[in-house]
Amino acid sequence: MSAYKRPMKLSDLNQKTTPAKRTESQAEPGDKATLPSVSPETARAYERADEAIEETTDSHKITKIEVQKRRKNRFNIYIDDQFVAGISERTLTKLMLVKGQVVTDDEIKNIKATEEHSQLIETSLSYLSSMPRTVHEVRTKLQTVTDSESAIDDVMTYLASLGYIDDASYAKHYLNDAIHLKQKSPKRVQYELHQKGISDRIIEDTLAGYAEADAVNNAHELAAKKYHQYLRRTSSHESMQKTYAFLAQKGFNGDVISQALEPLKEQAIDEENERQNLRRDRDKYYRRYQKYQDGMYRTKQQLMKKGYMRELINEAMAELEE
To answer: What is the pTM (predicted TM-score) of this model?
Structure first.
């Protein structure tokens, strides 16, 4: 920023072009009278023109730069003794601002724009420090700070140039965690990446790396745990049905679920556990239906619906008749 030089006023021009009034001792031979000065009307016109020049001059002076009380790395800028903005040390050093410096209106706008850019970068880096983020997530975060899309675009370009935001890389790492740590289905991964603003093309390319064998293995791990939980409360048949529904809800397709459940179906049924669950359900249904004349029949029908083996049902119902 160059030092300010005041524009020439019309009154200055008048002083240079209007001859000074000569004294009698300075009069030259042949002069009949002294040269006249400008008229009052012309003088007032000069004054109005000078005032207009003063009003249109856009130069100002930085009159004070002070450290903020609570944040020592930030500074308050005063121009013409008026507070203009709080700025970071990054902005202060980048623009080399000092007390007494002359700045124009455009330069003041640049100070504010530079500070906004700095603040958006700091917000982005803080947001990214806890975990990786998608382009959509970072942009959404910045939109809570500023309405200027052009300012956001500049910051997004800056972050991308440093490799801080990369949707393809993000999706690849997300899939890796989904397969090996969280046993998520391909459909679930697709949905979650879409929610995070990843493009359909990147999602499609990413899911190409999810092998069916991995999906079957993940579905089986989830199924084995859930199946044995259900077995504590109901028949093996109903436990298998509930496990199937559980995997479908997780987003695994029918073929993958069938392959995942096959090893569980081959396991021998623990008849003692089956009997315990059957007796518990028998007692529950019998308490509900014993007031009816066909209470025994209704109880037996409910047990059959739950998938208990007919032999075990007959055995349990015989116990009630004893």
So the answer is: 0.67
